[in-house]
């Protein structure tokens, strides 16, 4: 019989999927995609919690158990509303811990309900109060995490976040490409993914190029932290988990391009992924376009990491009204069957 005893045994070992060369700027009539390098997607929504964050949740919890910071029956408290929450809730359930997530009231009810469905408690804080107010997001999470038995993973500064990628995702990519990877592309949020994978790959081969994709406005690409719409990536501060020495280059991607590529991945590759995946894919395709036809491009193998599924964004990226209200709904994003066939 083939089975696993725990859902946690299904974390990692995600596949690499070759993306179509047709994704590389076909708008340009003179461009010949046949000369373009291979682009492989690391499909992280196939983790059991639906995102790359299952990896860091496992590693952060196991390390806290080992150090004694997290005791049997303890409570995990983290300010998160997204994928990290799901990963933590899943691992906590398997190991008998309680979870309390603190999130601002702007977080959609759907996201809160996902966390509750896993058995976590969700504490919602008003956005319209100053950070020093006792009900603010920051103060509530600090107060809860200082209770006896509580432990706060803090994905932004926890070294086990990048370490999980150094120990699992990086070696998987190296083995799956038989060491032929030449470029690695991913989005940057906490910086854990790029720092852990980037460091591992460069230790195997210092010539591997590590490229961060970043929403226009975020600090990694030189922005001031001004708002953007793509979720899970970009920051308005420099987290401890981000190793500033690892990226060879940061490619800035607009919301419009991120969402356009998110839709293309669903429509052309049947990959229903989130906006940060579209952003990373856009950067990878830009890179492939630059390398096409060059000597460096001939044997280039670009790996791009796609962090999560598009299911969590059906009312946003995949909703024409939502996309349209920001002026991002180009004709190319909303073609009907009739228009495509014409
Ligand atoms: N995409 C999504 C959807 C995410 O939730 C995150 C994590 N914030 C990232 C990308 C970026 O990964 P990292 O935090 O490891 O930089």
Short description:
The protein has 11 helices and 10 strands. The chain has helices at about 55-65, 85-95, 110-115, 135-145, 160-175, 190-205, 255-270, 275-290, 295-300, 320-325, 335-340, and strands at about 15-20, 40-45, 75-80, 100-105, 120-125, 150, 185, 210-215, 250-255, 300-305.
Describe this protein's structure.
With 342 residues, the chain is of the alpha/beta class. It is built from 11 helices and 10 strands. It has helices spanning 53-67, 83-95, 109-117, 137-145, 160-176, 192-204, 255-269, 275-291, 295-298, 320-325, 337-341; strands at 16-18, 38-43, 75-78, 98-104, 121-125, 150-151, 183-187, 209-215, 249-253, 301-306. β3 (75-78), α2 and β4 form a beta-alpha-beta unit. Bound molecules: 4'-deoxy-4'-aminopyridoxal-5'-phosphate. It comes from Nocardioides luti. This is Cystathionine beta-synthase.
